[in-house]
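Record type: ASSEMBLY
Status: queued
Input:
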Amino acid sequence: MSKQDLLSIVPLFILTSAAILILFSIAIKRNHKVIYIITTVSLLADFVFMAVADVPMKWTVEPLFVFDGFGKFNFGLILITALALTMLSYAYFEQREERKEEYYILLILATLGAATLTISKHFVSLFLGLEILSVSLYSMIAYLRKRERSDEGGIKYLIIAAFSSAFMLFGMALIYYVTGSMEFEAIGRSLQSLPKLPIIMIAGFGFVIVGIGFKLGIVPFHMWTADVYEGAPLPVTSFIATVSKGGVVALLVRFYTMVNGYQYDGLVGTFTVLVIASMFVGNFLALQQQNVKRLLAYSSISHLGYILVAFIAGGPLGIEAVSFYLVAYFITTVGSFGILTYLSDKDRDAELLDDFKGLFWRRPWTAASFSAMLLSLAGIPLTAGFIGKFYVVAAGVQRSTWLLVIMLIVNSAIGLFYYIRIIAIMFEKQNTVEPSRVALKPSVYLISGLSVAALTIALLWVGVFPEGLMALIRSLLNP
Amino acid sequence: MAMILPGFIISLMLGGALSWIVAGKSQALARWISLLTVAINLVVTIVVWVQQGSADEPHSSWLLDFALPWIPRFGIGFHLALDGLSLLLLLLTFFLGTLSVLISWKEIQNQVGLYHFCLLWVLAGITGVFLAMDLFLFFFFWEVMLIPMYFLIIVWGHENSRYAAFKFFIFTQASGLLMLLAILGLYFVHGNQTDNFTFDYFQLLGTDFAPNVGMWLMLGFLAAFAVKLPVVPFHTWLPDAHSQAPTAGSLILAGLLLKTGAYGLLRFIIPLFREQALVIAPWAMAIGVFGIIYGAILAFSQTDLKRLVAYTSVSHMGFIMLGVFSFNELAAQGVVMQMITHGISTGALFILAGFIYERIHTRDITRMGGFWKSMPFLGACGLVFAMASLGLPGLGNFVAEFLTLVGAWQATHKLTIIATIGLVAATIYSLRILQKVFYGTQADSTVLVDLSFRERMVMIALVVSIIWLGLFPQPVLNTAKPSIKMIVETPDKSEANTHRLTTQTEELSTKQKGGSHE
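Status: finished
Output:
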C-alpha cells in the first residue's frame, strides 16, 4: 500500500477513529455536549480533508476502492448531510430521557457505511459498507425504546435488511460464478466477451436488483418504508431518507455504468417498470396519508423514482442530473424533517397534519421555510427542486425516454396535490390559541433553527443561481 | 435604458418584500409602498410608450433588449425584450395592478403585509412573462406568478377557496409541465440541428421540425396556453378560481393571467410553429367559437355574480382563439385589442361585484336588485361595463370584437357567422346583470352607501380608459402593429425579418457585454 493509497482512504479513517474516540469518551464521562462537538468536528474535518487533500482526480486502491470525481462528490455530500443531521439531532435528543450519547457512534458508523458505498468498486467493499450501514441503522431506528412504534420499526428494518442482504449475496455469488470476478470492471469485461447474457447471470442481476431495491425502497420493495419512517426518531428518519438512500444510488450508478448495463434491454426494461411503479405507488399512497412522516416516506419513494428516471437515461447528462437531484433532494428532505424535529416536543414527534394547522399564524418563519421545502419537493421554480426536476427531464428528453418523462410529469402533478395540501393546512385560520410549548433552553433550539434557516437559504440559492453547483458537479464528473 | 426591463421586475419584488416588512409597524405604510411601486412602474411605462410613439423607428419591432447569461450550462440567459405587444400588456398590467392595490384598501384587513407581498409578486411574475425572451426564463416566470396567486386565493378568498385554489394550481401547473417538456424538446431539436444549445427565443425561431415532432411540441405549448386562456374544455378551474378569489385576485386573474395565455399564443405558437399551427387552425377556431357560445350560455344561467362574470370571460376568450388562428393582421389586431379591453371591462365588472359584496356580503344575484336607486354611481358604472361587455359601439370591446370578426371572415365564413351570434348572447347576459342587480326593487331595506371617493376614482379611471379605447383605438393599434406584422407575416418574409431581428438583438446584447446566445 503506497502513501497515496493511504492518503486517499484517510476520510474513512477519520470516521472510524471518531467512532472509537466517542466510545472512549463515553467510558470516561457521559456528556452530551462533548460528544456532539466531537461528532461535529470530526465530520467537518473529514469534509475539509476531502475538499483540500492533495489526491489525484482519479485514484484506485486495488481492488476495493476507487476515488473519482463522482465518488468524491457523493462522499462529500454524505458528510455534509450527516453534519446537518447532527445539528438537528442535538436539540431533539437533548429533550429525551434515554441515554443519548451512543446515538452519535451509530450515526458516524452509518455515515461511514454509506460513504464506503460511494467509493466501492468491488462486491466485498460494497457488502461491507452496506452491512455497516444497515447494522447501525437497526439500532438507530429503535433507539428511543420507550416509544410505541420504535420496536416495530427497528424489527421490520432488521428483517427486511437481513433478507435483502441475503438476496444480494446470492446474486453476487451467481455473478461471481459466471464471470469469476467480484470487481465491477472485471465483471463488465467478462460480460463483453459473452454473446448474450446467460440465464444464471440474469438471475444474479435480478437478485442484486432486489437487494438494492429494498435499500432504496422502490416499488415493489417499499413496504417497510412508511412503518420504519414513522417508528424511527426524526433525525434517523431523515438519515434513512437521505444518506442511506443516497449512498445506494451512488453505488447503483457506479455498478451499472461499470458493468455497462445500458446495453441490456432487459435490465433497462426492468428498471423502467420499477421506476414507473415507484412514482405512481409512492404518490398515490402519499395522497392518503394523515401523518406527515408517512407522507414524506411515500413521497420519498416517488422521488427515488424521479432520480432513477435520470439514471435510466444515463450518459453524462444523466449522471449529472442524478448528482444534482440528489443535492436538491437532500437539502429539501433534511430541511423538512428538520422542521418536524424543530416542532417536536418531549413526548412525541410533530407528525400529524393537525400539528400543522394554522402554523403560519403561530410561527410564520417556520411555516414559510416548510412551505419552501414542500414547494421544492413539488418542483416549483425559485427552489432547488425545480432545477433538479428540470435537469432530470432534460436528461430524459435528450435520450428520448418519452414514456418515463411523461410519467414523471403526470406524477409531478399528482404529487403537487398533497404538498400544497400541507401548505393549505398551515395557512388555515385558527381561532384557538395553543398553549405555548415549554422550551427547555432556547439556546438548544438555536442550533436547529439556524440549521433549518441555512438549509432554506441553500434551497433558494440553488434554485435561483444553480450555475455554481452545476459547474462543481461537471468539474468533478468530467475532469 | 434597457435596464428598466429588469427594473420593473426587481422593483415589484422588492416593493412586495418591503411592504411585508413594514406591515408589522404600519399597515397603511405597507399599502402606500405597494401602491407607489406599481404606480411608478405605470408612469415609467407610459413614458416609454409616449417616447416610442414620437420616435417612430419603423425598422424594427423591438424597442428595448436586455440580456445577461444566467445558467450557461444549458444556454439559459436572463433575456428580456420589449416590443409593442409587450409594452401594451405591461401598461395593462401596471394599470390593473395599481387598481388592485386601491380596491384592497378596505377589503383586506388581515395579514396586510403578506397580501401585498403576494400581490406584487404575482405582478412581477406576469411582467416577467410578458418580457422574457428566453424560453426557460419564460417558464420560470410562468410558474412564479402561480404560487402567490395560490396564496391570494387560499388565504383571502371566499368560503370555498381551498377547493378553488387547488384546482387552479394543479390545472395550471400540470399544463405548464407539458410546456416545459415541449420547451426541452425544442431545445434539443434545435441544439442537435445547429450544435447551438440555447433557450433563446430569437435563435429558436425558424427551427425546422420533422412533421410529427413539430406537432407534438406545439401541442405541449398549446396545452399550457389553452388552460390559461382558457379554452373549453380546459376552463373548469376558471369559474371556481375567479369566484373564490378576493376582488383584487379576480381582477388579476381575469385581467392579466388569462392574457398570458393569449400572449403565449401570439408570441410563441404562431412564430415558432407556423406550419403546425396552420394545420390545426380550423379546429382551434372551431373550439374558440364553441367557447364563445358555450361561455355565453353558461354565463346566462349563473346566479353567483362573480361566477357569471367568469363565464363571460370564457366567452370573450373564444374570440382570441378565433382571431389568433385566422392568421391575418386585422384579426390579430383585434386579439390585441380584445386582450386589453377585456382586461379592463371584465376587471371592472369584478370590481363592481367586489364593491357590492363589501356592502351586502353576498354574490347571489337573486338577493340583489334595485341598487340603482340607492347607489346611482355604481349603477352608472355597471351600465357602462355591461354595455362594454355586450360590445356597444363607442366602447373598447366593440373595436376588438369587430376587428376580430372582420379578420376571421377572411379565414372562415361559417365560423364567423356563428361567432357573431355570440354577440347576441352577450347582449342577453349583460342585460340580465343590469336587470337583476340594478333594476327592480331592493330585496331588503338595508341602507346602502354609494361609492366612496377612492372607489369612484377607480371606477372613473376604468370608464375613461374603456371609452378612450372605444373612440381612439389608433394609438394602441399603431403600437401593436410592428409586432403583429412580424407575427402574422407569411413564412418567407418572416424569415428575413427573423434574421434581421437576430442580428439586431445580437448587436444589442454585445453592447450589454456577454449575451447568452453567442
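Annotation: Confidence is low (pLDDT under 50) at residues 493-518 of chain B.
Annotation: Chain B touches chain A through 31 residues (CB under 8 Å).
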